[in-house]
Amino acid sequence: MGKTVNVEVRLRETNGDVSRLIRKFIKKCKKERIIEDYLDRRFYEKPSSKKRREKLKKIRNARKNNEARQGR
């Protein structure tokens, strides 16, 4: 399946502020890419399709970075 990740936030870390606790938990989940991994694994994707998608993503990011550098 993949690596198991335990995300934990204690109430003591946030000085008893529940809304801050929730924000901190969400931030940790995003950092560990828990939701993104779940969404990626919902449906099977052929390895060749995955490679193609990743390659196109790298090309787009490189183009975007070049445009940002040229804009300076």
Strand content: under 5%
* Largest beta-sheet details: none
> Number of helix segments?
3
The amount of helix comes to: 55-70%
Regions with pLDDT < 50 over 5+ consecutive residues? none
| Structural class designation | mainly alpha
C-alpha Rg (nearest Å):
18 Å
User: What average pLDDT do the residues reach?
Assistant: 91
Give the H and E element order: HHH
What is the number of strand segments? Answer: 0
Shape: flat
Task: Give the total of domains.
Answer: 2
Measured between the Cα atoms of the first and last residue, the distance is: 44 Å
Could you walk me through the main structural features you see in this protein, from its secondary elements to its overall organization?
The chain is mostly helical. It has two domains: 1-41, no CATH class; 45-72. 65% of the residues lie in helices and 0% in strands. It has helices spanning 18-31, 34-41, 47-71.
Quick recap of the structure?
This protein has 72 residues and is mainly α. The protein has helices at residues 18-31, 34-41, 47-71. The model has no long low-confidence stretch (mean pLDDT 91).
List the helices and strands and how they pair.
Blueprint: H1 18-31, H2 34-41, H3 47-71
Task: Note the main attributes of this structure.
mainly alpha; 2 domains
